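Researcher: Structure for this, please.
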Amino acid sequence: MLMLSKNFTAKHGIIVFMDTPITQSKAWYKLQQDLNEKAVFNQTENYQFLAIIKSTPVCNYLYLPYGPVYRDKKSFQEAFKELQEIANKYDASFIRTEPQDPNFTEYLPKNTKKSHDLNPKETWVLDLTGTDEELKQKLPSRLYRYYKSADKKGITTEVSHNPEDIQHLIKLQQALAKEKGINTFSENYLKTELSQPFATLYLVKYQNPETKNQEIIAAGLVFDDKTTRYNLQGAQSDKGRELHATGILTIQLIKDAKAKNLKIFDFWGIAPEGAPKNHPWSGFTNFKKTFAGYQKNYAGTYDIILKPAKYKLYQATRKLNQLRRRIK
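Model: Predicted structure, C-alpha coordinate format:
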Protein backbone atom coordinates (compact mmCIF):
# COMPACT_ATOMS: atom_id res chain seq x y z
CA MET A 1 0.00 0.00 0.00
CA LEU A 2 1.34 3.42 -0.98
CA MET A 3 1.52 5.83 1.96
CA LEU A 4 1.07 9.50 1.15
CA SER A 5 2.47 12.47 3.01
CA LYS A 6 0.41 15.60 3.61
CA ASN A 7 1.94 17.04 0.41
CA PHE A 8 0.42 14.41 -1.86
CA THR A 9 -2.96 12.91 -2.64
CA ALA A 10 -4.08 10.11 -4.93
CA LYS A 11 -6.32 10.76 -7.92
CA HIS A 12 -7.07 8.18 -10.61
CA GLY A 13 -4.00 6.19 -9.55
CA ILE A 14 -1.63 9.15 -10.03
CA ILE A 15 -0.03 11.15 -7.27
CA VAL A 16 -1.15 14.77 -7.29
CA PHE A 17 1.54 16.99 -5.81
CA MET A 18 -0.13 19.51 -3.52
CA ASP A 19 2.89 21.81 -3.19
CA THR A 20 3.90 21.83 -6.84
CA PRO A 21 5.03 25.34 -7.84
CA ILE A 22 3.36 26.75 -10.91
CA THR A 23 6.73 26.71 -12.71
CA GLN A 24 6.68 22.90 -12.62
CA SER A 25 3.10 22.49 -13.83
CA LYS A 26 1.43 21.55 -17.11
CA ALA A 27 0.26 25.15 -17.36
CA TRP A 28 3.89 26.35 -17.33
CA TYR A 29 4.74 23.73 -19.93
CA LYS A 30 2.02 25.24 -22.15
CA LEU A 31 3.60 28.67 -21.62
CA GLN A 32 6.98 27.32 -22.79
CA GLN A 33 5.35 25.90 -25.91
CA ASP A 34 3.73 29.26 -26.66
CA LEU A 35 7.16 30.89 -26.26
CA ASN A 36 8.60 28.36 -28.74
CA GLU A 37 10.87 26.93 -26.07
CA LYS A 38 11.89 23.28 -26.10
CA ALA A 39 10.71 21.60 -22.93
CA VAL A 40 9.89 18.20 -21.49
CA PHE A 41 7.13 17.61 -18.93
CA ASN A 42 6.58 14.36 -17.05
CA GLN A 43 4.44 13.28 -14.12
CA THR A 44 4.63 9.90 -12.42
CA GLU A 45 3.35 8.55 -9.13
CA ASN A 46 6.66 9.49 -7.47
CA TYR A 47 7.84 12.70 -9.11
CA GLN A 48 7.01 15.51 -11.52
CA PHE A 49 9.19 17.86 -13.52
CA LEU A 50 9.29 20.44 -16.26
CA ALA A 51 12.72 20.66 -17.88
CA ILE A 52 13.42 23.50 -20.31
CA ILE A 53 16.18 22.88 -22.85
CA LYS A 54 18.43 25.94 -22.94
CA SER A 55 21.01 26.53 -25.67
CA THR A 56 24.14 28.68 -25.46
CA PRO A 57 27.01 29.15 -27.94
CA VAL A 58 29.07 26.84 -25.72
CA CYS A 59 26.65 24.09 -24.71
CA ASN A 60 23.09 23.02 -23.98
CA TYR A 61 21.65 22.48 -20.51
CA LEU A 62 18.38 21.58 -18.83
CA TYR A 63 16.73 24.10 -16.52
CA LEU A 64 14.05 23.11 -14.01
CA PRO A 65 12.57 26.27 -12.45
CA TYR A 66 11.78 25.33 -8.85
CA GLY A 67 12.05 21.68 -9.81
CA PRO A 68 11.96 18.77 -9.81
CA VAL A 69 9.15 17.90 -7.39
CA TYR A 70 9.48 14.55 -5.61
CA ARG A 71 8.46 12.65 -2.48
CA ASP A 72 11.78 11.55 -1.02
CA LYS A 73 15.41 10.76 -1.82
CA LYS A 74 14.51 7.61 -3.75
CA SER A 75 11.97 9.41 -5.95
CA PHE A 76 14.47 12.21 -6.58
CA GLN A 77 16.96 9.62 -7.79
CA GLU A 78 14.29 8.19 -10.11
CA ALA A 79 13.60 11.65 -11.51
CA PHE A 80 17.32 12.33 -11.89
CA LYS A 81 17.81 9.12 -13.86
CA GLU A 82 15.15 10.20 -16.35
CA LEU A 83 16.58 13.72 -16.51
CA GLN A 84 19.98 12.26 -17.39
CA GLU A 85 18.37 10.42 -20.30
CA ILE A 86 16.77 13.66 -21.51
CA ALA A 87 20.10 15.46 -21.11
CA ASN A 88 21.80 12.84 -23.26
CA LYS A 89 19.12 13.19 -25.91
CA TYR A 90 19.68 16.95 -26.15
CA ASP A 91 23.46 16.79 -25.62
CA ALA A 92 23.17 18.81 -22.41
CA SER A 93 26.31 19.46 -20.39
CA PHE A 94 24.56 20.03 -17.07
CA ILE A 95 21.17 20.05 -15.34
CA ARG A 96 20.24 23.25 -13.51
CA THR A 97 17.88 22.38 -10.66
CA GLU A 98 16.32 24.40 -7.87
CA PRO A 99 13.81 22.22 -5.99
CA GLN A 100 11.84 23.88 -3.26
CA ASP A 101 12.70 21.00 -0.92
CA PRO A 102 15.28 22.47 1.50
CA ASN A 103 16.61 18.92 2.13
CA PHE A 104 17.69 18.68 -1.50
CA THR A 105 21.32 19.30 -0.56
CA GLU A 106 21.33 15.89 1.18
CA TYR A 107 20.53 14.19 -2.14
CA LEU A 108 23.04 15.97 -4.35
CA PRO A 109 25.06 13.87 -6.81
CA LYS A 110 28.83 14.17 -6.37
CA ASN A 111 29.55 16.40 -9.35
CA THR A 112 27.29 19.29 -8.33
CA LYS A 113 28.06 22.97 -7.96
CA LYS A 114 26.10 25.77 -6.30
CA SER A 115 25.01 28.29 -8.92
CA HIS A 116 23.70 31.83 -8.60
CA ASP A 117 20.04 31.65 -7.58
CA LEU A 118 17.72 32.33 -10.50
CA ASN A 119 14.40 32.15 -8.69
CA PRO A 120 14.33 33.49 -5.12
CA LYS A 121 15.69 31.11 -2.49
CA GLU A 122 13.61 32.81 0.20
CA THR A 123 10.07 34.09 -0.10
CA TRP A 124 7.33 35.56 2.08
CA VAL A 125 3.89 33.95 2.08
CA LEU A 126 0.54 34.85 3.60
CA ASP A 127 -1.97 32.27 4.80
CA LEU A 128 -5.38 33.14 3.33
CA THR A 129 -7.37 30.52 5.21
CA GLY A 130 -9.64 31.54 8.06
CA THR A 131 -12.25 34.29 8.18
CA ASP A 132 -12.16 37.64 6.42
CA GLU A 133 -11.69 39.32 9.78
CA GLU A 134 -8.71 37.09 10.58
CA LEU A 135 -7.18 38.00 7.24
CA LYS A 136 -7.75 41.69 7.89
CA GLN A 137 -5.70 41.40 11.08
CA LYS A 138 -2.74 40.23 8.98
CA LEU A 139 -2.78 43.34 6.80
CA PRO A 140 -0.75 46.44 7.76
CA SER A 141 -3.24 48.83 9.38
CA ARG A 142 -1.72 51.92 7.74
CA LEU A 143 -1.92 50.42 4.25
CA TYR A 144 -5.43 49.16 4.93
CA ARG A 145 -6.53 52.71 5.71
CA TYR A 146 -5.09 53.86 2.37
CA TYR A 147 -6.93 51.01 0.68
CA LYS A 148 -10.27 51.90 2.29
CA SER A 149 -9.94 55.57 1.32
CA ALA A 150 -8.71 54.94 -2.24
CA ASP A 151 -12.03 55.68 -3.94
CA LYS A 152 -12.29 59.07 -2.23
CA LYS A 153 -8.85 59.95 -3.60
CA GLY A 154 -9.80 59.01 -7.15
CA ILE A 155 -7.91 55.70 -7.11
CA THR A 156 -9.49 52.62 -8.67
CA THR A 157 -8.21 49.14 -9.49
CA GLU A 158 -9.14 47.19 -12.61
CA VAL A 159 -8.22 43.76 -13.97
CA SER A 160 -7.34 42.83 -17.53
CA HIS A 161 -6.59 39.70 -19.52
CA ASN A 162 -5.88 41.61 -22.71
CA PRO A 163 -2.23 41.01 -23.73
CA GLU A 164 -2.10 44.49 -25.28
CA ASP A 165 -2.56 46.04 -21.83
CA ILE A 166 0.82 44.67 -20.77
CA GLN A 167 2.23 47.90 -22.24
CA HIS A 168 1.17 49.69 -19.06
CA LEU A 169 3.27 47.39 -16.89
CA ILE A 170 6.20 47.57 -19.31
CA LYS A 171 6.20 51.37 -19.26
CA LEU A 172 6.31 51.44 -15.46
CA GLN A 173 8.96 48.69 -15.33
CA GLN A 174 11.22 50.46 -17.81
CA ALA A 175 11.27 53.57 -15.64
CA LEU A 176 12.09 51.42 -12.60
CA ALA A 177 14.78 49.50 -14.50
CA LYS A 178 16.46 52.73 -15.55
CA GLU A 179 16.43 53.95 -11.95
CA LYS A 180 17.62 50.68 -10.36
CA GLY A 181 19.78 49.34 -13.19
CA ILE A 182 17.89 46.06 -13.44
CA ASN A 183 16.77 43.93 -16.37
CA THR A 184 13.18 43.41 -17.48
CA PHE A 185 11.40 40.79 -19.57
CA SER A 186 10.68 41.37 -23.24
CA GLU A 187 7.30 42.58 -24.45
CA ASN A 188 6.68 39.28 -26.24
CA TYR A 189 7.44 37.29 -23.09
CA LEU A 190 5.07 39.34 -20.93
CA LYS A 191 2.32 39.32 -23.57
CA THR A 192 2.59 35.56 -23.83
CA GLU A 193 2.39 35.24 -20.05
CA LEU A 194 -0.74 37.39 -19.88
CA SER A 195 -2.37 35.29 -22.61
CA GLN A 196 -2.24 32.23 -20.30
CA PRO A 197 -5.38 31.24 -18.35
CA PHE A 198 -3.52 31.50 -15.04
CA ALA A 199 -2.45 35.15 -15.51
CA THR A 200 -4.20 38.39 -14.54
CA LEU A 201 -3.01 41.96 -14.95
CA TYR A 202 -4.07 44.55 -12.36
CA LEU A 203 -4.04 48.26 -13.20
CA VAL A 204 -4.28 51.00 -10.59
CA LYS A 205 -5.74 54.20 -12.03
CA TYR A 206 -5.79 57.71 -10.61
CA GLN A 207 -8.23 60.44 -11.61
CA ASN A 208 -6.28 63.68 -11.30
CA PRO A 209 -8.68 66.31 -9.89
CA GLU A 210 -6.67 69.18 -11.38
CA THR A 211 -6.19 67.94 -14.96
CA LYS A 212 -9.28 65.67 -14.97
CA ASN A 213 -7.07 63.10 -16.70
CA GLN A 214 -6.82 59.49 -15.65
CA GLU A 215 -3.38 57.92 -15.41
CA ILE A 216 -2.11 54.45 -14.55
CA ILE A 217 0.04 54.76 -11.46
CA ALA A 218 0.74 51.07 -10.74
CA ALA A 219 0.41 47.66 -12.36
CA GLY A 220 0.89 44.09 -11.22
CA LEU A 221 0.92 40.71 -12.92
CA VAL A 222 -0.22 37.72 -10.86
CA PHE A 223 -0.47 33.99 -11.55
CA ASP A 224 -3.01 31.67 -9.91
CA ASP A 225 -3.03 27.91 -9.57
CA LYS A 226 -5.44 25.79 -7.53
CA THR A 227 -4.09 26.88 -4.16
CA THR A 228 -1.79 29.88 -4.57
CA ARG A 229 -1.63 33.38 -6.00
CA TYR A 230 1.91 34.32 -7.06
CA ASN A 231 2.66 38.05 -7.05
CA LEU A 232 5.37 37.95 -9.67
CA GLN A 233 5.75 41.38 -11.21
CA GLY A 234 4.78 44.93 -10.41
CA ALA A 235 5.82 48.56 -10.69
CA GLN A 236 4.51 52.01 -9.85
CA SER A 237 5.10 55.57 -10.99
CA ASP A 238 6.37 58.43 -8.86
CA LYS A 239 2.75 59.51 -8.40
CA GLY A 240 1.88 55.97 -7.43
CA ARG A 241 4.61 56.00 -4.79
CA GLU A 242 3.22 59.27 -3.43
CA LEU A 243 -0.30 57.77 -3.23
CA HIS A 244 0.82 54.37 -1.84
CA ALA A 245 -0.44 52.61 -4.96
CA THR A 246 1.58 49.43 -4.41
CA GLY A 247 0.13 48.99 -0.93
CA ILE A 248 -3.40 49.54 -2.20
CA LEU A 249 -2.81 47.14 -5.08
CA THR A 250 -1.31 44.43 -2.87
CA ILE A 251 -4.28 44.45 -0.52
CA GLN A 252 -6.63 44.18 -3.52
CA LEU A 253 -4.60 41.23 -4.84
CA ILE A 254 -4.85 39.49 -1.48
CA LYS A 255 -8.57 40.12 -1.04
CA ASP A 256 -9.33 38.88 -4.55
CA ALA A 257 -7.25 35.75 -3.95
CA LYS A 258 -9.20 35.11 -0.77
CA ALA A 259 -12.47 35.59 -2.69
CA LYS A 260 -11.31 32.88 -5.14
CA ASN A 261 -10.82 30.50 -2.19
CA LEU A 262 -7.07 30.34 -2.73
CA LYS A 263 -5.07 29.27 0.30
CA ILE A 264 -1.74 31.08 -0.06
CA PHE A 265 -0.52 34.46 -1.29
CA ASP A 266 3.13 34.19 -2.35
CA PHE A 267 4.93 37.55 -2.42
CA TRP A 268 7.64 35.94 -4.63
CA GLY A 269 11.02 36.61 -3.15
CA ILE A 270 12.72 38.47 -0.32
CA ALA A 271 16.31 39.32 0.50
CA PRO A 272 18.31 36.57 2.26
CA GLU A 273 18.57 36.51 6.04
CA GLY A 274 21.29 38.85 7.24
CA ALA A 275 21.44 40.76 3.93
CA PRO A 276 22.93 44.27 4.24
CA LYS A 277 20.62 47.28 4.26
CA ASN A 278 21.84 48.26 0.80
CA HIS A 279 20.77 44.92 -0.69
CA PRO A 280 18.77 45.64 -3.90
CA TRP A 281 15.78 43.74 -2.48
CA SER A 282 15.92 45.39 0.94
CA GLY A 283 13.14 47.92 0.33
CA PHE A 284 10.48 45.60 -1.00
CA THR A 285 11.48 42.92 1.55
CA ASN A 286 10.67 45.34 4.35
CA PHE A 287 7.37 46.14 2.62
CA LYS A 288 6.39 42.47 2.24
CA LYS A 289 7.21 41.70 5.86
CA THR A 290 4.72 44.31 7.07
CA PHE A 291 2.12 41.67 6.18
CA ALA A 292 1.73 39.06 8.94
CA GLY A 293 2.97 36.12 6.91
CA TYR A 294 5.89 33.79 7.28
CA GLN A 295 9.14 33.00 5.48
CA LYS A 296 9.67 29.93 3.29
CA ASN A 297 13.17 28.77 2.43
CA TYR A 298 14.05 26.68 -0.60
CA ALA A 299 17.20 24.82 -1.62
CA GLY A 300 18.48 27.37 -4.12
CA THR A 301 19.92 26.77 -7.60
CA TYR A 302 22.41 23.97 -8.25
CA ASP A 303 24.13 22.70 -11.39
CA ILE A 304 24.50 18.94 -11.71
CA ILE A 305 27.49 18.64 -14.03
CA LEU A 306 27.43 15.94 -16.69
CA LYS A 307 30.27 17.13 -18.93
CA PRO A 308 32.92 18.88 -16.78
CA ALA A 309 35.03 20.28 -19.63
CA LYS A 310 32.03 21.86 -21.38
CA TYR A 311 30.74 23.18 -18.06
CA LYS A 312 34.05 24.87 -17.26
CA LEU A 313 34.03 26.50 -20.68
CA TYR A 314 30.44 27.66 -20.14
CA GLN A 315 31.35 29.24 -16.78
CA ALA A 316 34.45 30.92 -18.21
CA THR A 317 32.46 32.34 -21.14
CA ARG A 318 29.74 33.57 -18.80
CA LYS A 319 32.24 35.40 -16.57
CA LEU A 320 33.90 36.95 -19.63
CA ASN A 321 30.53 38.23 -20.89
CA GLN A 322 29.78 39.71 -17.45
CA LEU A 323 33.12 41.51 -17.49
CA ARG A 324 32.44 42.91 -20.96
CA ARG A 325 29.05 44.25 -19.84
CA ARG A 326 30.66 45.99 -16.85
CA ILE A 327 33.27 47.62 -19.08
CA LYS A 328 30.58 48.91 -21.44
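Researcher: Any notable elements?
Model: The first strand starts at residue 8 and ends at 11. Residues 308-327 form the longest helix (20 residues).
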